[in-house]
Request: fold
Amino acid sequence: MPDIRTHPHPPPHPPTAPAAPTTPPEQAPRPAAAEPAAPTARLVYDLADGRRDMADLLGGKGANLAEMTRLGLPVPPGFTITTEACRAYLRTGAEPPALRDEVSAHLAALERRMGRRLGHGQDPLLVSVRSGAKFSMPGMMDTVLNVGLTDDSVPALAARTGDERFAWDSYRRLIQMFGRTVLGVDGELFEERLETARRAVGVDTDTELNARHLRGVVRQFKDLVREHTGRGFPQDPREQLDLAIRAVFDSWNGERARVYRRQERIPHDLGTAVSVVAMVFGNRGPDSGTGVAFTRDPATGHQGVYGDYLANAQGEDVVAGVRNTVPLAELERLDRRSYDELLRVMEILENHYRDLCDIEFTIERGKLWLLQTRVGKRTAAAAFRIATQLLDQGLIDADEALRRVRGGQLSQLMFPRFDTRSRPATLATGIPASPGAAVGAAVFDSATATARAAEGEAVILVRRETNPDDLNGMLAARGILTSRGGKTSHAAVVARGMGTTCVCGAEELDVDPVRRRLTTSDGTVVNEGDVLSIDGGTGDVYPGELPVVPSAVMEYFENGCVLPPDADDLVSAVHRLMTLADRARRLGVRANADTADDAARARRFGAEGIGLTRTEHMFLGERRGLVERLVLADTDAERAAALDALLPLQRSDFRALLAAMDGLPVTVRLLDPPLHEFLPDLTELSVRVATAEARNDQADRADRADQTGHDACLLAAVRRLHEQNPMLGLRGVRLGLVVPGLFTMQVRAIAEATADRLAEGGDPHAEIMIPLVGTARELEIVRADAERTVAEVEAERDRALSLPLGTMIELPRAALTADELAASADFFSFGTNDLTQTVWGFSRDDVEASFFAAYLEKGIFGVSPFETIDADGVGSLVRVATERGRATRPDLKLGVCGEHGGDPESVHFFHEAGLDYVSCSPFRVPVARLEAGRAALAAP
Ligand code: PEP
Ligand code: MG
Reply:
């Protein structure tokens, strides 16, 4: 997950005058920036003026192009329009007034430097116009290449390059891209015409169309534009440029960009930068091409030459996966010089960025050009391996290694993998693009994937290749399978980013989206709805549902975090980074556990105690009858009998927990939910009673009448306890104050279990926690009663017991009066589930399903506040309570036991707020340990 906070922009650079060299780019000194219209609001930066740390303003692409330019690497010249210009456009619906002049000045400087004019003259300059936000959003926004080509400049380009085919191919690409992204013509229509042209000529690929054919295609494309827009394709190069810039701005708010941002938690208000760069051409024949290179394998993290190359191709052809690429290593054979140069550049970049770099390059007639680099997305396994590899290489230190891995990645590594010990037959083997073991019904389009997943079905989205329009289906699917495209295809890049299992380029599969089926090389047919299992770690595709086994990382945790002697490099990397995190962290990590088994697992996973035992989970099943007796009791004696029956059961529960967590704290929360939760449902019971009464009228049997009498009493109790809004009703401490003896019984059970454990030679550390306290008086009463009970047990057992008593902070009033509560509390534990519910007035059981989707869509919040702590609202109360509680009692221990305790981003918040520990479900304990360690690192 990217860091979603926005940072203030760096101060604008001082204005400098444009230089005017006219030499080709590779020899030219870099020009200085043009005179900006207003020094405080510079909207355009020359590539030579930016830096890598200016991604806020120049977007990742612009900042990294600038960085590579600074490093003296072969980057075509150009300039970047800032995200601020985009934000202004999005705010007002119009480009900021100064933008046009600034673009003119920079364009003029570029033209002087190149010695060519945009779309004019005998050697027309063409530019690419590319989007680039602060955070990489691969393929989610628009890009237009070959801007500047017109009816007049195509012949000039053909003459200059001596390659008529190339000139017409570039023009048809421009009209196609521009038509679709800028003018809004349906992209399929262009594809259809191209397909018709190919069929008419009798060829399979575009590269087989000659200049004459392409000229015909251009004519048809121009007709298409006129038909759909009512005007001809723009023939003014500057107008093309301005429209393309605007289209890129607009694409920030395109449907797929919005969906992607929501998924990746990227704020909607950042805007995109636009880089305008002199075109270099990978489609100038067999000695040209374009590709993507990774300095390490983004799937495994292993070092080597990874990437894809496509000869005689331009721009997005590789990522779109429309033609099959060759592995990058092939380039060594095709063009040794460029290959060596690329390896040299890759080494420079990896050493400079001290990380895996993902590079887009183009070779134009044997000359290598870099079009983009970024710190590459990687799988979870690769992230852990690369962090330790770079640490060993001395490129980064231990703190930086920890910064390079995230809790979300760790939890992915804990997912199960397929059990292939029985050597099941595969349907095909593709490229392992994003790991995981996914099982689901095959579906052949995005809409079906979304619809069936919404019904709760696990689906595998099967496509020839994916494109950005498939995003919703990709999000809904358990796994993605494509028959085309390499590790850098759209499917692979996006799946890796989302952490979804993906196998791509399974070429043996013939995917037929129209008949909704795939056929394997031996003729086996898989229809829509048939179950597939895909292994994103090996690339294997299996028919049916394959059994799964725990991952090696999970086994490591289950084994008590002991590194086995035969550990593979991934488990070793995890162990090493977890050790570093434990060393770095200040926050303790406990678990929410209600059973001894959960407690034991949590302990194996590294928990340092239990932060929350929900005792209500001990009142279910067979014990429900005892609770019913308690509720139905009419007399003190009946009530005491019910409580006496519960006492030994609770005591043995607590003993087991204390034994499992011997030596570590165990926070036991007294009963929280309303009593009716333990009784039958009101409607069901009413029906039962009414039916039974009707039957009794007919046959008056004594035993049946007895049962009916019991049910009638129960029904009366259920009616009495029925609440319109039980979450805000008789629950928590309120229950303890109005149901006589209930809390006393629980406290006694805790005290007796502690005494029992001490007698057994154990080292119990129980803590008593009171839920839903709103005022100090409630706590005082419960505390006095608890102290009395503990004193009784001490006297009976002749042992001193140390049982700290604390309160949950889950109501705004509790947080605001924390100074008063602290006088009666040994510790606070923030119940951020209820605190979120009460601060927002959101019913925690209802809102997520009812309207959160709309709130997320409208950008009211980027993520549910029940998932990640709302730092400004709920978080403010956490800070207030911390400060006020500690003012009364400086040694007050502070923890959190709401769901947020295991959420990576929230863990950072709790660290900064100064809490002592977080408590979360056992499976999230490793994530919390890792994130607590990361939170404690000083800023780099
Ligand atoms: C909470 O409210 O955050 C909490 C931990 O209690 P529960 O979820 O049981 O209400
Ligand atoms: Mg609660």
Q: What stands out?
A: Confidence is low (pLDDT under 50) at residues 1-39. Residues 612, 614, 672, 810, 831-834, 897-898 surround phosphoenolpyruvate (ligand 1) (CB under 6 Å). The chain is about 45% helix and 15% strand.
